[in-house]
Design a protein that fits this description.
The complex is a heterodimer of chains A (172) and B (182). Chain A has ten helices and no strands. The N and C termini of chain A lie far apart (111 Å). By secondary structure, chain B is mostly helical. Chain B is 57% helix and 5% strand. Chain B has a two-stranded antiparallel ribbon with strand order 1-2. The relative contact order of chain B is 0.16. The chains are: A mainly alpha (172), B mainly alpha (182). Chains A and B meet through helix 10 of A and helix 1, helix 2 and strand 2 of B.
Chain lengths: 172, 182
């Protein structure tokens, strides 16, 4: 029985060695075969543009739940981790300003402003305010005179309804 | 601010603006009316002066005479002034238009039902007001309805109306009773 066990172990050991050597050779052979394949030439022969054109990019993109992906991005946490003060401190304001053509910038900004329209609008607005103040003051005068006369004559408030109240549009 | 607000909209206004909004369409008092009339009187004088200037310009262009503002006798001045005032007031009070004084004071002349005046009624009112308007207007201070004496027999009223011309036109487009208060 003791010899039988030694023979068995010897056979197993030999088999393992053969298997290991076979595997190693197979890998080497595979590597050589792969090295022999002209990958670059094959790639050059592939009609990549046609293949890419056949890919339904739009359908693929349409299936991507972009909104859900964006919602999962922890924007607030990312912003909270940014040290704004440190970033600002690194900016060389003087150098930045030196590179800016302030005169041209101001000129372009002023070109975009319609001063005529601005002046007209502000004048109209000021005129409207003065007019409304005058109207309000005379309206108050009306009420004051009516109150004084009604009190002198010892009678109730006046009946002034003609049209519906709340006629004119008024800004809050 | 282009929409005509309802009474509910007053609750969103400041107290002063809400009070003003509540008075829209109601009869105006004597202070507003006298102020508007004073402005209109000034406008009438300006209009009359422009008429004289136009008359002088026509004379200068049509003849070889030098440019000279005409100086008619006083009675003709008075007659021309009365004519200008009647035309000015009649055209300003009838329809959806307003005189300068009424526009500045936010007032409008309407019938006692709140409708716009026809030109005929506006003309009659202008004639009455031109000759005996101011004494009769004083009754508005005493009247319980802020009515001048001529308002009573002409069935007219002067109400607060702060709407802009554009808003009046918009209301006229929506309502066949163009610009009325109903």
């Amino acid at each position: 029985m003791g010899n039988g066990g030694g023979v068995f172990d010897s056979v197993v050991g030999t088999a393992e060695n053969l298997l290991r050597e076979g595997t190693t050779r197979a890998v080497r052979l595979g590597t050589r075969v792969v090295e022999m394949i002209p990958i670059d030439e094959l790639l050059q022969r592939l009609p990549i543009e046609q293949i890419v054109e056949r890919i339904p990019i739009e359908q693929i993109v349409a299936r991507i739940p972009i909104a859900e992906l964006v919602e999962q991005i922890p924007i607030e946490r990312m912003i909270a981790r940014i040290d704004i003060n440190a970033l600002v401190a690194q900016i060389d304001i003087d150098a930045l300003l030196a590179r800016i053509d302030i005169g041209r910038l101001v000129g372009e900004a002023l070109k975009g402003i319609d001063f005529e329209e601005l002046f007209r609008a502000s004048t109209v607005s000021a005129g409207s305010e003065v007019r409304d103040v005058a109207r309000t003051q005379t309206m108050n005068g009306d009420l004051l005179v009516a109150r004084i006369v009604d009190r002198l004559l010892r009678r109730d408030e006046r009946q002034l309804d003609v049209g519906p109240p709340g006629l004119a549009p008024l800004a809050p | 601010v282009n929409a005509v607000p309802t009474v509910d909209a007053e609750s969103t206004l400041s107290p002063t603006r809400a009070r003003i909004a509540g008075l829209q369409g109601r009869r105006a008092g004597i202070v507003s009316r006298v102020t508007a009339n004073a402005i209109d009187l000034g406008v009438v004088f300006v209009c009359y002066f422009l008429v004289l200037v136009a008359w002088a310009a026509v004379g200068y262009l049509a003849t070889s005479n030098p440019f000279r503002i005409p100086d008619p006798p006083p009675w003709l001045h008075a007659l021309a002034l009365v004519g200008v005032q009647i035309l000015y007031l009649a055209s300003g009070w009838s329809g959806s238009t307003r005189t300068v004084g009424k526009e500045l004071m936010g007032l409008r002349v309407v019938t006692s039902r709140g409708d716009l005046l026809t030109y005929r009624r506006g003309l009659v009112r202008a004639v009455v007001c031109t000759f005996i308007g101011e004494p009769l207007l004083l009754w508005a201070a005493i009247s319980r309805r802020n009515a001048a004496l001529y308002d009573m027999f002409l069935h007219t009223a002067v109400v607060y109306d702060w709407r802009s011309p554009a808003q009046v036109r918009a209301a006229a487009a929506r309502d066949p009773h163009a610009g009325t208060l109903h």
